[in-house]
Amino acid sequence: MTKGEIIDLLKEKDEAVIENLLRYADQVRKEYVGDAVHLRGLIEFSNYCRRDCLYCGLRRSNSNVVRYRMTIFEIIAAVFEAKDLGFQTIVLQSGEDPAYTIEDIYAFVRRIKSEFGFAVTLCIGERTYEDYARLKEAGVDRYLLRFETTDPLLFRKLKPDSLYVKRFQCLDWLKELGYQVGSGNMVGLPGQSLESLADDILKFKELDMDMIGLGPFISHPDTPLQGSANGTIDMVLRVTALTRIVTKNAHMPATTATGTIDPEGRQKALQCGANVLMPNLTPRKYRRHYLIYPDKICTDEDPRKCRFCVESMITGLGKTVSRDAGHSLKSSFQQRKSSS
Ligand code: 5AD
Ligand code: FES
Fold first, then answer.
1. Which residue range is the domain that position 102 belongs to?
2. Which ligand is located closest to the Cα atom of residue 146?
3. Which of the ligands is closest to the CA of residue 161?
4. Closest Cα to residue 119, out of 129, 109, 127?
5. Of 218, 219, 269, nearest to 239 (Cα)?
6. How far apart are CA 151 and CA 155, in angstroms?
7. Which residues of the chain have pLDDT under 50?
8. Cα 134 to ligand 2 centre (Å)
């Protein structure tokens, strides 16, 4: 697809055309990644963040956040629960929290890998090449780092203490080190053009991402973007569908943010390209404090309930829960794996 064609579809007013687009993306999903939905158990282990992104509720300037940091024992307990609930992949996510050294993370990942045999995904932000190399040695399989937007000016405005080139540099390093790499963006950011959204979609393809997570921007009242309009479900579904069509066999979660702006949002995303769900396994007492955006769903359910809830969502859509760890399907990953 050309950039012009993508922009036209993002602009399209005729609902029938959009319905066709979503249906076509669903066929592409079926052909390239099948009907099984992969589950990834999410553990949000710290909500401290050294950065000050304008959109994010966990930004360091937000003094209304009750900050927490899980101990290694609490993390291992959550991992036990993940095992018990039948997960094969866990995602360890935090703000950019300097209190955990790379050696701390190395130690608990080693333990999780050796004792539980999970596929481990990390989502802990921008680090140095050496840090990423060390974490790979610990056995981390995958890494998520959304680039958020391909528009360099918008990036600079929204992430005043990050560098656009460093973000993409990190993604290159992670690939070079043999990780399965995920990126993503937000849809409906204040000041985001349709043209830059089309660029985002083409960037996913150019970077040959193994995983792509996207969702609507949701305005947080304790941030400088309070009162801005949220992204819409319509635009999120268009971007999901176009991303599936363009990237073919990437793994794509139906995200919690998408389920937050529309009660059926995750189901809708699973029907136009998405093939992954990430139930929340963060202990309940902490979960309500990981409010990247307001009104986040699933903040009061216990992990068991979330697990059951996503399973019934999957079967309700006539799909199955995947029985394998859901590694990357990209041929480039197979090559990277054998050469790293
Ligand atoms: N609305 C929606 N998504 C957000 N994120 C951060 N802030 C918001 C918000 N206000 C997303 C970013 C980040 C991911 C963890 O959450 O894309 O990478
Ligand atoms: Fe934590 Fe942006 S506020 S990385």
1. 3-339
2. 1
3. 2
4. 109
5. 269
6. 6
7. none
8. 23
CA distance 247 to 280: 26
What is the three-class DSSP state of 142? strand
Nearest to 90 by CA among 145, 129, 131, 142: 142
Query: How many separate domains does the chain show?
Result: 1
pLDDT score at 302: 85
The CA 1 to ligand 2 mean position distance, Å, reads 33
Which residue lies with its CA nearest to atom 2 of ligand 2? Answer: 53
The pLDDT, as a whole number, for residue 340 is: 63
Q: What is the pLDDT of residue 177?
A: 97
Q: Provide the pLDDT for residue 336.
A: 74
What is the domain-level CATH number for residue 178?
Answer: 3.20.20.70
55-75 per-position pLDDT tens digit? 999 999 999 999 999 999 999
Find the residues whose C-beta lies inside 6 A of ligand 2: 49, 51, 53, 56, 58-59, 95-96, 125
Token look-up 């095992």 returns 83
Task: Give the per-residue pLDDT at 192.
Answer: 98
* Ligand 1 centroid distance, CA of 275 (Å): 20
Nearest-atom index, ligand 1, CA of 292: 7
DSSP 215-231: EE----TTSTTTTPPPP
Rounded to the nearest angstrom, the distance between the alpha carbon of 340 and the centre of ligand 2 is 30
Question: Cβ neighbours of residue 99 under 8 Å, at least 6 residues apart?
Answer: 46, 48, 69
